[in-house]
Amino acid sequence: MIDPDEPYKIQIAKQAKIIEALINRAERGHEVGGSAYSLFESAIALQTEVWEKTKDLEKALDTLGRASSELEIAYQTQERIQRNLADAMVAMEDGFALFSEERLQVCNAQFRHLLADVEPLIRPGLGFDDYLAAVNASKYLNRDENGGISRPQALVTEQESGQRFSSFVMELRNDRWFQISYRQTSSGNITVLQTEITDIVRENRREKNRLIDQQAHFLQAAFDHMSLGICTFSSRGELLVRNERFGELLGVPLSLLKKGSPFQRIIEHVERHEILEHKGRRSKFAGWFKVMRRGETMQERCRRRDGMSLDIRIHSLPGDGFIVSIMDVTAETQAAALLEQRVQERTAELTEANRLLQIHAIEQIKIEAALRQAKEAAETAHTSKTRFLAAASHDLLQPINAAKLYLSMLTETAGQPGTEDVVGRLKRSFTSIETLLQALLDISRLDSPAAEFNITSFELGGLLQGLAGDLAPLATEKGIELRIVPSTRWVTSDQRYLMRCVQNLVVNAIQYTEGGRVLVGCRLRGNRLRIEVWDTGIGISEEDQTRIFNEFTRAGGAGKGTGMGLGLSIVERACRHLDHPVRLVSQPGRGSVFSIEVPLVAPGRASVCENPMMEQMLDGSLDLIVMVVENDADELHAMTQVLESWGASVLAAASTVDAAALMQEIGTAPDILLVDYQLDNGDNGIETIRTLRALAGIEIPAIIISANRQRQFLQLCNEMSFAVLNKPVQLVRLRALIDWKTRARVA
Questions:
Q1: Is the peptide bond before 728 cis (omega within 30 degrees of 0)?
Q2: Response regulatory domain: from which residue to which, for each copy (predicted)?
């Protein structure tokens, strides 16, 4: 019923009400009626309740006594604190006041007596804003606008801006200065402190004047020791500070250089006595003062009558004043004149030299034009030579290809004694011619500035296996063991040129080995693969090792007819363009080791335009319809005979138009197209393939026969999904390629 946290007065009042209620209830208990037994029971119950209430009353009285003691102690503590606060405020030299809920609670005498017209208002309960307003309106404040007085701000404004402290300085009329600071405490009260700072302000003022006097002395001393003539003027044009050098350089008497002398009088003296020369009828010195009045900067270079050159500069100063500086620049002027004269002389020399250089440049341009024409003529001749070799190789390879086809047929059909030997000799002769033409064509391409390479990633195993199939008959003919170690590594290179280089190395090893074996294998060297060709041949001497890579050069000791000396030259050129290092280790009489290093790559998928793995000549009939398009009649007839001997049905045509007409006539598409690239009248094999595929509505497998190895051609090969077979055609490769393309279509 009684909350111990409530004030003691409220607790005592509640206890008094409880006691009064108990007494009233006890008195009403005596007013009973009824029987004696009922009265007895009521008396017993009433006595029990009186005992309980008496106990509660004793506890309440005990609590009330303790609360009264604590309240007395609190009253004594509060009185002691108030006496201490009053003593502290009396002992303070500064004015102090405490505002609670923005109303004045207490202050000391210093705070009350600061301003006489505000003193009557300093009473408990004065509002804080009213106090600030009264201070602002006091007649004892110095109200000079230049006095630099900070007016007090209301505390509400400080709370809105997030500040809890403010301070300002007041200047009284009797040259007294006070700083008033007020702070808002955490409990929301405001404390105001008035501090007199008159002594500090006066000391700062004296120190400022002393520093100004000292700086003026230093400035004057600096002016006097300067080589420049210096003079400062006020905003009204009156002289303030100057040095002796100013009068010496300008030639003005000392009577005109006193403090306060007008700038206009000095200018008039200079003009009247013509101390400075000026060009034209109108004096240029008359507008100096007007320029300065506009706050602009002016610089003039003048000359005295005695020949001295002066540099006069006028700059504005803060407060609308200006400063005039005069410098003796006679030496600089003379040096500049001398330098200008030398520059003119040097300019004349350079002009003449430039004229001679222009003449020389014109001659140089003529020479360069002649050299350019000669270079263009040489490049044109080189290009013409390359085109001629390409055209000549095609024209030469055409009859050679036809002859090889007829020789192949003759070898299979000839039965007379001695015929096979004659055919073999003819075949070797044609092979030599083919090899020579192919080598010359490769060297021509590699020497061309526009040599192109088709860099791809491929597995080396297929290249080495095809090499084994091609060169095994040559090794068997010489009785040499040819061993090629298989490899599953993938490399990055031009597959055709790399195969040609390895083939040339193996052919050389076979030709220069009379007995023994030739070994081809690969070794890992970091991120590269080294293809090595070992032989047990005659070896190469040290002096021959530096020249065998030249054209038509053979190692000493080699017999006649063992080679043309072009194979290693092709290897060196191709590997140099492909950045494949070539190494040679050899010992005469014991053999040689040639190696080519190529970059390794991760295994991937071979390009569709790469040749398939070369296989042995397949047995069985070639039960296919083959469309052959060839403009050379002999080669067309020979190819037709070979394909028919393999069991194929051949459709022969000489152009794209004939092939399209023939396919429409039979009413069906052939199983495979075998097309020459270079046809008559601007026609070519690519257009033939496109036309026949479009006419058939399906992608007919195709093989194009060409000596073209340009990059654009090979890219087109990849896009159109046809294979490329180089001339002259090897029948083993042709049969394997036909079988691979047709099996791929069936799959």
A1: yes
A2: 625-742
> Would you give the distance in Å from CA 120 to the centre of its chain?
77
Q: What percent of the chain has pLDDT over 90?
A: 11
Residue-wise pLDDT for 71-90, tens only, equals: 777 777 767 776 666 666 66
SS3 705: strand
User: What size, in residues, is the chain?
Assistant: 747
Q: pTM of the predicted model, to two decimals?
A: 0.37
CA distance 715 to 178: 97
Q: Which amino acid, one-letter code, is at 591?
A: G
Identify the CA nearest to 268 among candidates 256, 280, 254, 278: 256
- 51, 291, 310, 717 from 268: Cα distances, Å: 124, 16, 18, 99
Q: Radius of gyration (Cα) for the chain, nearest Å?
A: 61
- The residues near 458 (Cβ < 8 Å, ≥ 6 apart) are 490, 491, 493, 495, 606, 607, 610
Res 448: pLDDT = 63
291: left (phi over 0), alpha (psi -120 to 50) or beta: alpha
| CA 299 distance to own-chain centroid | 49
* φ, ψ of residue 697 in degrees (nearest 5): 80, 10
Sign (positive/negative) of CA torsion 350, 353, 359, 364? negative
Which stretch of DSSP H or E encloses residue 218? helix 198-224
- Do residues 345 and 338 touch, judged by C-beta distance below 8 A? no
Farthest CA pair distance, the chain: 173
Alpha carbon distance 192, 180 (integer Å): 7
In 3-state terms, what secondary structure has residue 319?
Answer: coil
Instruction: Please give the backbone phi and psi of residue 70, each rounded to the nearest 5 degrees, phi first.
Output: -65, -40
Dig out the tokens for 55 from the structure. 């106990």
Half-sphere exposure of residue 387: CA atoms within 13 angstroms, side-chain side: 6
Euclidean distance between CA atoms 552 and 556, whole angstroms: 13
Q: 286 in helix, strand or coil?
A: coil
Give yes or no for a contact between 592 and 537, defined as CB atoms under 8 angstroms apart: yes
- How far is the C-alpha of 242 from the C-alpha of 234, rounded, in Å? 12
pLDDT at residue 653, rounded to an integer: 93
Residue 315 C-beta-side C-alpha neighbours within 13 Å:
6
